[in-house]
Every structure is written in C-alpha cells, then in structure tokens.
Amino acid sequence: MSNDLEKKRQELINSIEKTIAVANEAQIDILKLQLKSGAITEEEYQKQADFYLDEINKTKKSDD
C-alpha cells in the first residue's frame, strides 16, 4: 500500500511540474505578444523570457 501511495504521489508531482512548464511556455508567448505590440521593450522581454526559460529547464531536469 505504501508503494502505491508513493507511485500516486510521484504521478501527481509529475503532473504539476508539466502544468508549470506549460504555464511558463504560455507566459513566453504572452511576452512575445507584448513585445510585438510595444507594451514592453526588447530588454524587458529578454529578461523575463530568460526567467521563464530557466524555470522550464528546471522542470525538464527534474524529469530526468
């Protein structure tokens, strides 16, 4: 039973991590639209995009 609970726990963690990665990718898409519309500068876009890319990479590393 303990093993079954651990498996369910790990599945939940994986699901949450994938959701976070998708949300971060969506944030980058939003930033691209903001940049295109002139709402943010190239510098601000790059700074924020780098942050979200780092978060995505952390999630991918934890999948390994």
What does this structure look like?
- The protein has 64 residues and is mainly alpha-helical.
- The protein has helices at 2-37, 42-63.
- The model has no long low-confidence stretch (mean pLDDT 92).
Q: Outline of this structure?
A:
The chain is mainly alpha-helical and 64 residues long. It has two helices and no strands.
Give me the secondary-structure topology.
Layout lengths: L1 H36 L4 H22 L1
Helix pairs in contact: 1-2
User: Which residue ranges are poorly predicted, with pLDDT under 50 across at least 5 consecutive positions?
Assistant: none
**Distance between termini?**
26 Å
Described by its quaternary structure, the protein is: single chain
Question: Helical region count?
Answer: 2
* Percent range for β-strand residues: under 5%
Helical content stands at over 70%
Radius of gyration of CA atoms, rounded to a whole number: 16 Å
The biggest beta sheet is recorded as: none
Total beta-strand segments: 0
Strand/helix succession: HH
Structural class given helices, strands, pairing? mainly alpha
Molecular shape: elongated
Tell me, rounded to a whole number, the average pLDDT.
92
